[in-house]
Design goal:
- The chain is of the alpha/beta class.
- The protein has a domain of about 120 residues: Rossmann fold.
- Helices cover about 35% and strands about 25% of the residues.
- It has ten helices and ten strands.
- The strands form two sheets. It has a six-stranded mixed sheet, sandwiched between helices.
Length: about 240
C-alpha cells in the first residue's frame, strides 16, 4: 500500500480579510500524479502557496506524516517539497547553467542526489544547447523546462507544479505530460495545478476539482470523464 506523501486536512487560507480556501481536504500518495483542476480564481494556486508556507493559513498540512503548517518556506523546501510557479521565476540575466546550479542542494538528504546537471540536459537537450545563453531570451517553453529542471536540482520528493502548460503550443503540452510521467517513474510525487482537462485525464492517477475555495470532486480520471455534470458546472467556460 502506497504511503501518504502529503495530507491536507481542513485547510483555510486568507489574503488579508479574504477567505480563499475554506476547509480543503486533499492528499497525494507516494508515487502519484494528482491533478487539481478548476477555473481561474477558485484557489488552486493559493493551495500550492499555502502548502509552501507562503500564505496565512489554519488547519493541517502533513508531509511524510510531519506537520509543516506554520513552518517557513525554506524549511519546507528543505524537507523535500519543490515548487514550479506559474510565472516561471527564472533569473533572466543568468545563463541556463547558472540558473540550474542555483537550484542544486549542497548535500542531499539521502547521500547521492536523484538529479544531476547531466541528467537535466539528457531530459531536455534544448537546455544543453542553450547552456550559456541568458535565461531571459529563452522561449516560453524553454523557460518552463528551465524552471522545472532548477526545481528538480533541489532533489524534491514531492513537486507542486502550477499551470506548466500555460501558453505552450500543443506539441510542448504533450511533452510536459511525458516529462511528468518520467518524474513519477523516478520516484517523485506530483501535485499538478492545471486548467487543461486533457493532460489531467492522460497522466493523473487521481483528480480533484476545486470550486469556491473547496474540493467539489475527487476521483479517477475515468470517473471525472463520466461525470458530465461536474465538468459542466465547475470546469467548462
Amino acid at each position: 500500500m502506497a504511503q501518504r506523501m502529503l495530507d491536507v486536512q481542513g485547510l483555510h487560507a486568507y489574503y488579508g480579510k479574504s477567505h480563499i480556501l475554506q476547509g480543503v481536504d486533499a492528499h497525494v500518495d507516494e508515487g502519484e500524479i494528482v491533478t487539481l483542476l478548476g477555473r481561474n480564481g477558485v484557489g488552486r494556486s493559493t493551495m500550492a502557496k499555502t502548502i509552501l508556507g507562503m500564505v496565512k493559513a489554519a488547519g493541517s498540512i502533513r508531509f511524510r506524516n510531519e506537520e509543516i503548517l506554520g513552518r517557513r518556506t525554506f524549511e519546507i523546501a528543505q524537507l523535500g517539497i519543490g515548487y514550479v510557479p506559474e510565472n516561471r521565476d527564472i533569473f533572466p540575466t543568468l545563463t541556463v547553467r547558472q540558473n540550474l546550479l542555483l537550484g542544486e542542494k549542497r548535500r542531499s538528504r539521502q547521500g547521492k542526489p536523484r538529479w544531476t546537471l547531466a541528467e537535466m540536459y539528457g531530459m531536455f537537450p534544448r537546455l544543453k544547447e542553450r547552456e550559456n545563453t541568458a535565461a531571459g531570451v529563452l522561449s516560453g517553453g524553454e523557460q518552463q523546462m528551465l524552471t522545472l529542471c532548477r526545481t528538480l536540482m533541489g532533489d524534491p520528493d514531492l513537486i507542486l507544479i502550477d499551470e506548466p502548460t500555460e501558453g505552450l503550443a500543443p506539441k510542448l503540452v504533450a511533452q510536459v505530460g511525458e516529462y511528468l510521467q518520467a518524474l513519477k517513474e523516478r520516484g517523485v510525487s506530483v501535485l499538478l495545478i492545471e486548467q487543461k482537462l486533457a493532460i489531467a485525464l492522460d497522466i493523473s492517477q487521481r483528480v480533484y476539482v476545486m470550486g469556491h475555495g473547496n474540493i467539489v470532486f475527487e476521483g479517477s480520471p475515468a470517473e471525472l470523464k463520466a461525470n458530465a455534470q461536474v465538468r459542466k458546472e465547475w470546469l467548462e467556460v
